[in-house]
Amino acid sequence: MSLEVLLRSIGGADVWLRRALALALVAVLVVILSAIKSRLARRLTRFAAASPGRVDDVLAEMANRTSGVFTLAVAMLLALLFVPLAPPVERLARVVALLMCLLQAGIWGSIALRGLVERRFVAVSGGQTDAGRAGVARMAAFGGRVLIWSILVLVALANLGVDVSALIAGLGVGGVAVALATQNILGDLFASFSILLDKPFVVGDFVVVGDFMGSIEEIGVKTTRVRSLGGEQIVFSNNDLLQSRLRNYKRMNERRIVFKLGVVYQTNPSQLRAIPELIKKIVNAREKTRFDRAHFLAFGDSALE
């Protein structure tokens, strides 16, 4: 009997027979898909263990976190392609399978988001994790998970027949009201993200902001703390800090020092012309120094500068 004739006969068979065949096909597909998932997870795990990259670690974790519920959902959807059921039963099966798939999508999205956040934000130096970056990373991961699961819940409600347009509109209005009420806090929060992404400074850098100077001690969600030379801690708002003119001395490769030399007025022009070359030889003879330029500056009160 050909596949086409078999499917036609199933379509006209008794409802209980079709249900039994559908369940049998689901069971077979679950076994096949579970074997494929296990084999893929083992291969990805071995590859991630041998590779230093972060992406393969995320893929391996996603494969290992693929639940049997998702495998069952895929098996149900595939079975419905071959075995027709009564419209109400088929509609219910599709909705249940979709909810299972959305649950797995949320798990995958959370894993991928955590991997992205850890790769982008969390900086490890000498085995110690920067507490400020880790705090912002946790908040970014939490906000991302809330966004992912909110979207999935809305999709699930829409497929269950719930009108989500009014709910989305209400959330939008509420979000605008919350944003207006907490605009200063949100400004500092986004400023902390900008600091961690753009990296104008990191913990340990020596900076000068206006009349204040010191070493960056902690980069938080709302504020950045600087340990001044006098020993006290100076707290800056992240938003105000980004709007200020900041000098980062930690990233200074060279320090240019300008100084004056005075020679007596009796020095003749030929001797004056020889002074820049003499200074150049003296400076270049020292290690870790570089000569820039020298020139006659002015007639001083008691010397030629």
Could you walk me through the main structural features you see in this protein, from its secondary elements to its overall organization?
With 305 residues, the protein is an alpha+beta fold. Among the domains are: 1-107, no CATH class; 201-248, SH3 type barrels (Roll), CATH 2.30.30.60; 257-305. It is 61% helix and 10% strand. The chain has ten helices and seven strands. The strands form two sheets. The chain has a five-stranded antiparallel sheet with strand order 6-5-4-3-7. The chain has a two-stranded antiparallel ribbon with strand order 1-2. A hairpin with a 4-residue loop joins strand 5 (223-228) and strand 6. The longest helix has 36 residues, at 15-50. The chain is elongated. It starts with a helix and ends in a 21-residue tail after the last helix. Residues 123-128 have low confidence and may be disordered.
Short structural summary:
With 305 residues, the chain is of the alpha+beta class. It has helices at residues 3-11, 15-50, 55-64, 68-82, 87-120, 131-159, 165-181, 183-198, 238-242, 269-284, and strands at residues 124-125, 128-129, 206-209, 212-219, 223-228, 233-237, 246-248.
Uncertain parts = 123-128
**Number of separate strands:** 7
Strand content: 5-15%
**SSE-based structural type:** alpha+beta
